[in-house]
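Human
Can I borrow your eye for a moment on a structure tokenisation matter? Give me a protein, with the fold worked out from its sequence. Write it directly below this note and I will take it from there.

Assistant
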Amino acid sequence: MRTQAKFEITGYVGEIQANGKVTHLKVAAHYRRKDGDSWTDDTYWNRVAVFSEELRQYIADNIKVGDLVEAEGRMRDTSYERGGKTIYATDRIVYQFRKLEAEQADEAA
């Protein structure tokens, strides 16, 4: 049996950074949480990495800040040294990515 750590994010693009052979995107996902007697939206910014040349080209040609998107991929824990300290991070590596229309998001809710 194949095992994996997988993620799926549906949200709005807040930032796109194309650098060399990787494109990073920040995608905002909104969660409802109770704040006293009322409910409020809690926004979480997810940073994802795209290495596939085909997906990177799709993003360059079709995606802009504010677009509603869906990203799916695998998760990987990493660590590195910076200034004598060990920094721990979780990478979200995208293998499927698409732009959604507002109607698609409403149907999924």
Observations:
- The mean pLDDT is 92.
- Residues 6-108 form a domain with the OB fold (Dihydrolipoamide Acetyltransferase, E2P) fold (CATH 2.40.50.140).
- Residues 53-62 form the longest helix (10 residues).
- The first strand starts at residue 6 and ends at 19.
